[in-house]
Design brief:
The complex is a heterodimer. In chain A, α6 packs antiparallel against α8 and α9 crosses α12. Chain A is globular and about 100 Å long. Among the domains of chain A are: 269-530 and 584-591, no CATH class; 596-624, no CATH class; 627-672, no CATH class. Chain A has a three-stranded antiparallel sheet. A two-stranded antiparallel sheet of chain A has the order 1-2. In chain A, strands 6-7 form a two-stranded antiparallel sheet. Chain A is 70% helix and 5% strand. Chain A is mainly alpha-helical. In chain A, a hairpin with a 5-residue loop joins β4 and β5. Chain B is mostly helical. Chain B has helices at residues 5-26, 30-55, 58-83, 98-115, 117-122, 126-129, 131-147, 151-172, 178-206. Classes of the chains: A mainly alpha, B mainly alpha. Chain A binds chain B through residues 650-655, 658-659, 661-662, 665-666, 669-670, 672-673, and chain B through 95, 108, 111-112, 114-115, 117, 139, 142-143, 145-147, 149, 154, 211-212, 214-219.
Amino acid sequence: MSNVSLIATASAGLGAAIAGGALPSKTRVASAVLLTWVSCGAALAGAAEVLHSGHPLELQSAQLLPLTGVTLSLTPLGAVFVVTTAVVAMASTLYWLGYASHGLNSRTASVALPLFVTSMLMVPCAASVSTFLVLWELMALSSLALVLNDQARREEARSAAQWYAVMTHVGAAAILFALVLLSAHAGGQTFAAIAAHAKHLSGAVRSTAFLLAVVGFGSKAGAVPFHVWLPKAHAEAPGPASALMSGAMVNLGIYGIVLVGDQLLGGGPAWWWLCVIALGVASALFGALYAATSTDLKRLLAYSTADNMGLVLIGLGASGLFAATGSHATAAIAMVATLLLLVNHSMFKGALFLAAGSVQVATGTRNLDRMGGLMRRMPVTGVVFLVGALSVAALPPLNGFVGEWLLFQGLLHGLPTTSTVVVFAVLVGVGALALTGGLTVAAFVKAVGIGFLGRPRSGEAADAVEVPYSMRFGAGLLGASCVVLGLLPMLVIPALERAARSATSSAAPSSVHGWVTLHLAGLHGVLAPVLLAAGLVAAIAIVASLRRLAHRRSNKWRALRPAEPWGSGRLLQTPRMQYTATSFAEPLQRVFDDVIRPARDLDVSHAMESRYYIERISYRSTSDDIVEQNLYRPIIGAANWWGERARSLQNGSVHRYLAYGLVALVAILVVIA
Amino acid sequence: MSSSPFASLLEIAAGLVIVCAVVTLWRRSLSAIVKTLAVQGVALGAVALILGLHQHDGVLVGVACLIIAAKGAVIPTLLARVLARDPRSRESTPLVNVPASLVGAGALTVLAYSATRPVVALVATTAGQLIPLGLATMLIGFFSMIVRRKAISQIVGLLLVDNGIALVAFLATAGVPLLVELGASLDVLLVVVVLRVLAAQLWSRFGVFDLDQLRELRD
């Protein structure tokens, strides 16, 4: 029974891709979805077995891949990622059934999507360098094909795919160097051999490998400053693909850092983890800030992904830091918090991206300033988005809250140590978490308020209709899991603890107890999500009934007219008088003016007759990514400059090109002679 | 050098290979150049044949026959067919004139001798002493590709390079495996076919075999 599930996952996934490529257009999506579900089901079964027993599933085949063979091993840590990916993938493929007719039923897409899912399911199972890199590359290429899906219709998709292709391959090169360096020193390329040899490596080799891995995997996770591809590619990818990329693929970047840092190298000095925390703080703040000022719905969500991965990196770095300074109990809590944040992020970001895809299908736009009033027109999608938004804003009783609570507990209780550096790092981390939390709330209040409430700002938004059932179910599945995980986090926490223990190979006892009330071992923190939810429901019921009571008693209340929330009362004449996404973000943009440096464009045209009468005013404010502007544009400019210089070497004459060859050859011969 | 008949024959055949290379630089008539190439192909085959008979290596003898057929007959015939459109075409204005080219060929031969000294010292046989000739042939071929304008001359230059490499291979090793030799020959044959088509296209488009026309393709 042991490795049947691994074989079934891989073969059903490949079968789905083949079905997607071979069948006619009527049946291809449905059969690909069916087989992908089989693949996900097999993966879930295998992962459940591993998480239950604690023993890894192993599979080796010398024939599957030439020269190196395939080595797979599903550890409890990998199983957590497999389960998360499988859940997001099942919801996204279900959603794909309805989305397919909106430009995602081509042969290429039907091959790429199942391949993408399967490669993401298999990456955490890889147990040798070559297997890992092959699967990693397969994941990058299949997702690249999905980003390119809309390129015929939109120029931006092509540019996004270019950014993605370059960044993912630079990242893959860094990962390749890191893993090859380790396996060259270990004298074997299986992860077991590398881990066994890690103790004998010199500090310089270990640090080089770790930092390369952080750069490579960090670029996949969207850590600032390697994030520039993420807001472009995640926004341009079609609905189900963007949910998979943001909900599942970025996790694997974090997995890679845990794999190299903890499993292969067995932890490291404190400064490694301080680097990770610094990266996390930068990503969290930067992502949250740009999410708060963005007016493109999917771009907002993508920046929020960078923000959440920043939180995860802070947790991961804190866990490593605590382990390096000897406080293993807090390290275990921080690791569990990190994994819980990851799982939660997959659920709510998947739900949000699927809902955003539905909005795009229904209105044909991603611009928040052209939406409005969608809650009434698309109630299911609206509620799913609302649940996701509350969850990402870390409000109880949803899952985002539990994860951030655990992270705060871990960070705050890690404080009483002797090292000032640790205290400082943790304090900066806590401050960043707090500021990020506030900015995230602002971003999602804007997304829900402007996009879903108020009155429609465009004809498309006014004519929007609810999407097909499969899309509602797909998004709803993830939305429901946000609620369930928020109420009953103990459903997953024991599994996460087992995974954390296998990652850090520590024998720390279980640190979180209690089904209804969460107790932390050794700490004073207590949380009762169910009671909290019950209290919230009770409070809302009390307020509602008091209001009804007052309504009945007093005549004053009768004079009130109900108005659309966020509609600015009923007095306004046109929907254009409502708050817009730009105006909502304006105060924040003003505060962070020096960081964002938006380009403002105010254009006033006067009436012909008199310059005291203004005919129209157009105001445009665009905020380009400052990292892209200040870090990447100069690099691209320099590369172009070199390219232009190099062109003068080529004048089109065949003789000249041949002469270059002969001159080089003669020079070499003269040197060796 | 030794004076056995085997050594003398080998020296004559290998010498003929490089003499033919120099002759292609000296002659201007394209049809004469192609004929010289055929002679070189036969000489190269003869080198392999002599080595094969001397070492009693049946496979090497087979390879020799193959080379004589391909490089002495098939490829020159293919080239001659292209030339049939314009039998009097000449390499009238090479980028470097003929005396200067011959001086250049001499310099390249000296370079080849000095660069291969370590290899020659390593292989003590008669065949080993002749290795510099192969390298010189290769360099001369490369040189002729640079200084000649016509597409046919380019093909001939490429074939000189290939013949040089093959000569080194025969002399330095105890014989090239049949499979490798087959692969290399097929490769060259394919290149010749492609270049032949290119030359024919050039002819039909511009009425000359002049490669400088291709500069128009840039930008």
